[in-house]
Design goal:
By secondary structure, the protein is an alpha/beta fold. The chain has 16 helices and 16 strands. The longest helix has 28 residues. It is globular, with a radius of gyration of 32 Å.
């Protein structure tokens, strides 16, 4: 049963070109249907239209020319093509490929011409008509009998995701389109040492070669886990071994793995209120009953109301509370570990931005105080290096390591092996610490300049709260009734500080915005704040 399989994109020599007239042979087709390249003839401007499969059955009662007509017509009406991919093969080529007479092909082509499916262009060949006859029929049918699409029946899990983006809003990452936007917690990516990173990447590829192209361990690269354990013990005060470390695709995946390991559907997860909005999304998506817990100047409050279910997991940001910026006191840390042990819960410590502290050395992590195996420590490289790297890690209590590795294997097996190996070299050769020190100095300078300019230009409208660490500020609106105008001005001029209210679940917040500062130079900060202040002044005065 002959079959035609012609592929879009293959250029064929023009039959009526000089070399064709001189006797150049038409291209031969392989058994797979691909034309053998002819590098000596001229190349056509248009590609051959692909008829994915034309099957002619010589035993059928239907004549061959009728089968061919019908199948080509169906291919034309169902295909997707443009002006550069709408030319049909010649009748001679098609007859040769199908093993039928040229007369059979010409009869089919003639009928397709007559019915408006094909059109000829002198000196160029035969093309699919534009528009096809079916287009007119579809248009009339659509007007006469409009079809109503039913929305899909989505799961409650999806419907409950507190994410209101639509359409083009998904085209950008969470930081939005480029520009001076003052989005919180965005790093200065233009300062990343790409040349060093690429050199190390080339070295690990040369050294390990195809080994890095294989499926990798769900634990993570052993050299990276060893380097991370050394760094965390020396610089974050952690108590861990490389075997306790699981490499993840970032903090959100670390939260999901922890929730899947510990929380059954409907069981309780405590999170700080206000807190990291992605924690609320992630634990809720995992099926937990997310319970907001207020924070005070010492951190999350832990007194459990009577007759309320105990949490199975408690999410905290002790080194730098997000978004308010306070540091959890030693007394509260000790009490939290004791509480978790008493109610058989685990603490998820999100140690974001702890490296960027501007008054004194970084504070040791909560995990370093844990002697009973109740703290799951999580870190990410997104803010230190760059977000699209998508590498983070969990330091798990020993009894949770293997269950968490199994969950990671079910999710997506592992993070990219080449990136893990490159990061391991970046850590062990000292570039990681050098980069942190350089960025801490840069961010400190931008932070001080932002504070100076903001107070001078916008102090009339906001009270700027100055934390000891992190990559953002909270600016409290002085007059509550101005918040609507302030929000509209931000939209109009294209800046995107986040409303603090997005971080609250239960507590009614005072109006405030969170501003990022780290990603922009002094000149950009001055220009962006100046534009904001001038527009705000024109609207409120």
């Amino acid at each position: 049963m002959p079959m035609l399989l012609l592929m879009i994109g293959k250029k064929l020599p023009t039959p009526n070109s000089d070399k064709s007239r001189a006797g150049a042979q038409l291209p031969k087709f392989s058994r797979a249907g691909n034309p053998t390249p002819n590098f000596h003839g001229k190349r056509r401007r248009h590609s051959i239209l692909a008829f994915e499969m034309v099957r002619l059955d010589r035993a059928a009662a239907e004549p061959l020319h009728q089968q061919l007509y019908r199948q080509i017509r169906d291919e034309l009406t169902s295909a997707s093509f443009n002006n550069n991919s709408s030319r049909l093969p010649s009748s001679r080529d098609l007859a040769l490929e199908l093993g039928v007479s040229r007369f059979t092909v010409n009869v089919a082509f003639s009928r397709l011409h007559a019915e408006g499916y094909l059109e000829s262009k002198i000196g160029s060949g035969t093309f699919a008509a534009k528009p096809l006859p079916e287009n007119f029929l579809r248009a009339r049918t659509a007007k006469a009998e409009p079809q109503i699409e039913r929305p899909p029946r989505l799961s409650e899990r999806v419907r409950n995701i507190p994410d209101h983006r639509v359409g083009r809003q998904f085209d950008f990452g969470i930081a939005g389109p480029p520009g001076v936007s003052f989005v919180p917690a965005v790093a200065a990516l233009d300062e990343f040492p790409i040349d060093i990173w690429e050199r190390l990447r080339a070295q690990v590829l040369a050294q390990k070669g195809a080994h890095l192209l294989q499926y990798a361990s769900s634990r993570g690269d052993p050299d990276l886990r060893k380097a991370l354990a050394t760094y965390l013990c020396d610089h974050r005060g952690a108590r861990c071994h490389p075997d306790q470390i699981i490499v993840t695709a970032g903090t959100q995946q670390a939260m999901m793995i922890s929730a899947m390991a510990l929380v059954n559907r409907g069981e309780v997860a405590w999170i700080e209120d206000p807190g990291f909005y992605q924690a609320r999304r992630t634990f809720g998506f995992a099926g937990a009953n997310v319970v907001p817990r207020p924070v005070d100047q010492e951190g999350i409050t832990i007194a459990r109301p009577s007759k309320k279910r105990s949490p199975k997991i408690i999410y905290v940001t002790p080194s730098h509370q997000f978004p308010l910026g306070m540091t959890m006191s030693l007394a509260r840390r000790t009490a939290l570990i004791d509480f978790a042990r008493a109610c058989d819960a685990y603490i998820f410590e999100d140690d974001h931005n702890s490296e960027f502290r501007y008054t004194g050395p970084p504070l040791p992590c909560l995990q370093g105080l844990d002697k009973v195996g109740r703290v799951i420590y999580s870190g990410t490289l997104s803010k230190i290096l760059y977000p699209s790297l998508r590498l983070g890690y969990i330091v798990a209590p020993q009894q949770l390591v293997e269950p968490m590795i199994k969950i990671r294997a079910v999710m997506d097996q592992h993070s990219p092996a080449i990136d893990q190996a490159t990061l391991a070299r970046f850590l062990t050769e000292g570039f990681f610490l050098t980069h942190i020190k350089r960025m801490r100095k840069l961010y400190s300078d931008r932070r001080d300049f932002f504070i100076e300019q903001f107070k001078k230009m916008l102090g009339k409208y906001f009270i700027l709260e100055i934390p000891e660490a992190g990559l953002h500020f909270v600016a409290w609106v002085r007059q509550k009734d101005q918040m609507r105008v302030i929000t509209r001005v931000c939209t109009d001029i294209g800046i995107r500080p986040s409303p603090l209210s997005s971080c609250f679940m239960k507590v009614e917040p005072k109006p405030a915005l969170t501003f990022g500062f780290a990603a922009w130079s002094r000149a950009q900060i001055r220009e962006g704040l100046g534009k904001f202040a001038a527009t705000l002044y024109s609207k409120l005065n």
